[in-house]
Amino acid sequence: MKFLSRPEEIILFTILKLKEDAYCVPIREKASVISGKEWSFGAVYVPLHRLEKKGFVKSSFDDPTPIRGGRSRRIYKITAAGMKALAEVRELQENMWAEIPEFSHE
User: Residue 79: which domain range?
Assistant: First the structure.
């Protein structure tokens, strides 16, 4: 099992939720909603780069559009290895919480 950092986990989960709309701007916006904290573009690009290097996501460019001044967007997709990593994170978290009695953070 390759452990994910918390930012990598959030970004990977965000890509899963966004499906075909997973490019930097919506990833940043959705990660902010999920985490309840504002993400800078750098805070998104660093884990994206690491996730791609680990083989958990792959990226490709879409067709240029006039709306973006003829520029393409880099679209991210989760790989089978990325899905496995998320499943392992979920299983690990469930195992950790399994033996904890009712927990209140108040």
Answer: 6-98
Tokens of 45: 């690009």
- The answer to the question of residue 106 being in a domain is no
Q: Tally DSSP H helices, then E strands, for the chain.
A: 4, 2
Could you tell me the CATH number of the domain that includes residue 52? 1.10.10.10
Q: Which residues of 50-62 are buried (b: 16+ CB within 10 A; e: fewer)?
A: bbbebebbebeee
pLDDT tens digits, one per residue of 7-46: 999 999 999 999 988 999 999 999 999 999 999 999 999 9
On whether residue 105 sits in a domain, the answer given is no
Is-contact 52 59, C-beta < 8 A?
yes
Instruction: Please state, in angstroms and as integers, the Cα–Cα distance from residue 40 to each residue in 6, 24, 54, 94, following that order.
Output: 15, 10, 22, 30
Question: Rounded to 5, what percent of the chain is helix, strand, coil?
Answer: 60, 10, 30
Q: pTM of the prediction? A: 0.83
